[in-house]
Amino acid sequence: EATGEYSPQTQQYHLTLSQSCASPFLIPVNVALISDSGSQKQCVILKDHHQTFVFENVTSKPVLSLLGNFSAPVKLHYPYTQAELALLMTHDEDCFNRWDASQQIGSIVIKNLMKAAQQQKTLTVPDFFIDAYRELFAQPVTDPALMAQLLMLPSFQYKSIPLRNPALPNKVWSIRMTSAPLL
Q1: In the predicted model, is pLDDT for residue 161 greater than 60?
Q2: CA-to-CA distance for 73 and 75, rounded, in angstroms?
Q3: In angstroms, rounded to a whole number, what is the distance separating the alpha carbons of residues 15 and 66?
Q4: N or C: which end of the chain has fewer CB within 10 A?
């Protein structure tokens, strides 16, 4: 679990990491703070159940990129906003984190479209999602394989699209096919 708090007065970012094991492990966590003024990177070591790390001279509220370069084989939850996921998808230097952000943001959109379809509402792809894709198309393509992965909508198997209802796969497929041309 990760939480963060930015203080503009002190220009500090406080990152609190926690682990829920009986005995805490030593977990290296590569952290990148992405902001208007660039990226600040550091590897921190989580060795207690809860630890707070302070980053100095952070001039604006950053977006966190966690576990870059697969620094540890762990699952880490951080409550990203849609805007933060869009920024990570389009600007993170870590390729896996960019891909993961694109999958998370795509899953959010698909879930919201599924909810709208169940309520018989008009299916509309949100502007933040379209803007993120526009940003990707505007960037120079240095890695075509990465770009292809970033542009793909999440698959049925992706972890955050629950398919507990047997009739749901048809709806997910329909929504994927509806939203793809809108991009």
Answers
A1: no
A2: 7
A3: 11
A4: N
pLDDT (tens digit per residue) in 71-95 = 888 888 999 999 999 999 999 999 9
Q: What token pair was written down for 12?
A: 């500090």
State the pLDDT at residue 170: 63
Helix H, strand E, coil C: the string for the chain is CEEEEEECCCCEEEEEEECCCCCCCCEEEEEEEEECCEEEEEEEEECCCEEEEEECCCCCCCEEEECHHHCCCCCCCCCCCHHHHHHHHHHCCCHHHHHHHHHHHHHHHHHHHHHHHHCCCCCCCCHHHHHHHHHHHHCCCCCHHHHHHHHCCCCCCCCCCCCCCCCHHHHHHHHHHHHHHHC
Tokens, residue 151: 């542009």
Span 86-121, pLDDT tens digits: 999 999 999 999 999 999 999 888 888 888 888 888
Read off the tokens for 146.
């990465």
